[in-house]
Design a protein that fits this description.
Structural class of chain A: mainly beta
Helix content of chain A: under 10%
Largest interface: A-B, 24 and 26 residues
Radius of gyration of chain A: 13 Å
Number of helices of chain B: 0
Distance between the termini of chain A: 36 Å
Largest sheet of chain B: 6 strands, mixed
Strand content of chain B: over 45%
Largest sheet of chain A: 7 strands, mixed
Number of helices of chain A: 0
Radius of gyration of chain B: 14 Å
Shape of chain B: globular
Number of strands of chain B: 11
Oligomer: heterodimer
Strand content of chain A: over 45%
Helix content of chain B: under 10%
Shape of chain A: globular
Number of strands of chain A: 11
């Protein structure tokens, strides 16, 4: 099993550009989440999904959209990138809401 | 909503010294999880504590859950260079987003050989 995969590993955007961060898992987990990690601020929840077709906002959802058309995939869309979105983004999946989170390798995003 | 605070934010130790990081919650937690993130890597699950006063050990790592279930600690005995990384605690936020996990800010451990 590949676990949780994320693409791309690195990305540089200009302010105002849009892009999609990809996340996929092959563990048949119902729950998937997106976090951003900034120095000294731990992991903050952006959006999460409790199953295909169901998504909800986390702590810091502004500027991001998600969708969950399949159990496996949970893409994160940046609508109009801003320098404040420079961060490392982690996707995670779990079998239950409060169960062990399995993290992907992360995407390091820089917005100029 | 719940706040999960970790102290210290950074810790430098000499190899062989002990290390402890503390996690405190503003609300009672049903359980707490600990994760380790190596430099440049992603968080990896270490352990989950559920019971009040619970103590669990993994080799040189000792995890404790407070009696009131509002705090937890991770203690590493005789640190090694392989212990380098950031240690996070995480607990469910009953008033937050869908009762999902809330992560502490992490404690970054640096070990001098």
């Amino acid at each position: 099993n590949a676990g949780v995969t994320q693409t791309p590993k690195f990305q540089v955007l200009k302010t105002g550009q849009s892009m999609t961060l990809q996340c996929a898992q092959d563990m048949n987990h119902e729950y998937m989440s997106w976090y951003r990690q900034d120095p000294g601020m731990g992991l903050r929840l952006i959006h999460y999904s409790v199953g295909a077709g169901i998504t909800d906002q986390g702590e810091v959802p502004n500027g991001y959209n998600v969708s969950r058309s399949t159990t496996e995939d949970f893409p994160l869309r940046l609508l109009s990138a801003a320098p404040s979105q420079t961060s490392v983004y982690f996707c995670a999946s779990s079998s239950g809401l409060l169960d062990t989170q399995y993290f992907g390798p992360g995407t390091r995003l820089t917005v100029l | 909503g719940q706040q999960v605070m970790q102290i210290p934010q950074y810790q430098h130790v000499q190899e062989g010294e002990d290390f402890t990081t503390y996690c405190n919650s503003s609300t009672t937690l049903s359980n707490i999880q600990w994760y380790k993130q190596r430099p440049g890597g992603h968080p990896v699950f270490l352990i989950q504590l559920v019971k009040s006063g619970e103590v669990k050990k993994q080799k040189r790592l000792t995890f404790q859950f407070g009696e009131a279930k509002k705090n937890s600690s991770l203690h590493i005995t005789a640190t090694q260079t392989t212990d380098v990384g950031t240690y996070f605690c995480a607990g469910p936020d009953p008033q937050g987003a869908g009762n999902m996990l809330t992560f502490g800010g992490g404690t970054r451990l640096m070990v001098k050989p």
